[in-house]
Design a protein that fits this description.
Elements: H1 4-10, H2 27-52, H3 57-62, H4 65-73, E1 81-82, H5 85-95, H6 104-126, H7 138-160, H8 170-179, H9 186-205, H10 211-226, H11 256-284, H12 291-307, E2 314-315, H13 317-325, H14 332-347, H15 349-352, H16 357-371, H17 374-383, H18 385-400, H19 406-421, E3 432-436, E4 442-445, E5 457-461, H20 471-484, E6 491-495, H21 504-519, E7 523-527, H22 531-539, H23 542-546, E8 551-552, H24 555-565
Parallel strand pairs: 5-6, 6-7, 7-8
Antiparallel strand pairs: 1-2, 3-4, 3-5
Length: 566
Amino acid sequence: MPDEETTKKTGKFPFLQGILPIEKSQVPLDIIAGITLAALAIPEVLGYAKIAGIPVVAGLYTILIPVAIFAIFGSSRHLVVGADSATAAILATTLVTMALPGSPQYVALAGMVALLAAGFLILSRIFRLGFIADFLSRSVLIGFLTGVGIQVALGQIPGMFGVPKEVHDPILQIAHMVKEVPLMNSVTIILSILVLIIIMGGDRFMKKIPWALLMVIGTIIASWALDLTTLGVITIGHVPGGLPSIAFPAVPLDQIPNLLGVAAACFIVILTQSAATSRAYALRYSEKFDENVDLVGLGLSNVAAGMSGSFVVNGSPTKTEMVDSAGGRTQLAQVVTVGIVIIVLLFLTVPLSYLPSAVLATIVFTIGIRLIDIKGMKTIYERRPVEFIVALLTALTVIFISVGWGVVLAIVLAIVLSIIAHLRHSYQPMNSLLIPTRNGDWVSSPLESGRQAAPGLAVYRFGANLYYANDGRFTEEIIRIVTKASPSLKWLCLSGMSINDIDYSSSETLKQIHGELQKRGIVLMLSNFEEHVLQQMERDMFIELVGKDHIFSSRNEMIAAYQKIT
């Protein structure tokens, strides 16, 4: 929850936690980051709108009112809200069975899904269900997003070659495309290939340049100047200008039950990705964030999306990293982006109508390719074969059951398999600080006591195996021990007597914690770990990071080493 100082600065209610307090020296950096986000995100959200089957202008709407709402009501200073490939794919594979993509009815259904997802988010805040986010592991998310990436990329190949979409299954659509080869437009093909080479090649060598935006601008100019439509190139056509109108989506009551499943699937993805992203950046900058306050912010952002003719919005890891890489550290950067999007909607939608459809399809294709995490899947296979099977099944479900409930089923399957695979783990272990006695034994002391084994040395005992559902608590407790330590810590020793297994997610978390402690000038020590756990850590390259001289077979050996150097 927000601390007393934050509450005083933001008023009686926890508003503007992501903006206040404002540091004058940070404002120019946030402005630059906001401009950078707009440059990179505008072509991206146009692509996400295409994935979702919504008119492209609705993509711009996702980074307008929803972003401003989260800046006011959210707690994370870093999380960027907007359209997301995963939720866009969920919409596309489900709503397509209920209405024609791009039609007013389809847009209304998408808006209602956003409102229903908002309802789930608000209810989860009321009942404090934010912990649900812990039950989709990092390995499952890698598999899920890889499946979504493959599905999205396959689905855009016909559009890149100017072939009309006859079926909704991407694999069947490619088969249909083969029959259409003699009818393909050569100018469209050349244009798509050039755009693909420039974006993929540019991202490989100069990532900070907004290649997608440059391709949008360049092909719009070329389309207008050379009148490419006379050569058979199809453009996206009229893009309505002006700000979105606010209205409740007109969906018959008898259709709402059919939307609950897709809204629940979007809710799970929003909850998982947003919480993981907020947590990662809060840890990186040693800041507080309240998962339950974020749920309110995300819920209200989706209300705004549903009421403004748009679709589900999510906390986006990629957009958050865009802002962070550009130096942005508060939601002020996102507010700047909102201002730029307003300018685009008011003055620049006419040029957008000249954008070739094949170029937009190519941009979406590159988004799909970036989601395919071959390296991540390979790493999971090498280090956690059981988790790899779960990730692979999740990816295959997304790819091959692509119509109707495929993506929804993939999420449900991922959750069930994750829980089954890790039933042997304990979610809320009894953790403690260990204190030596005069006769050489060790006794447990509550974490709240803050007791140290020696001045500047804390020994933390985690009472269960480390895995994706409890590594958030593990992180929070360590940060709390370090923050409240008196005197300040020089060493923090992790006692592994109850840790017999460490999964992939927690292995990565340990590395993050090591880096955070290192920044604070605190040395991480390990003691009482079983040999097979140390071997696991060695495979994960964590031993190399910590150093073998910082590993002790017993706590007594560790404290003797500490006393020797102090």
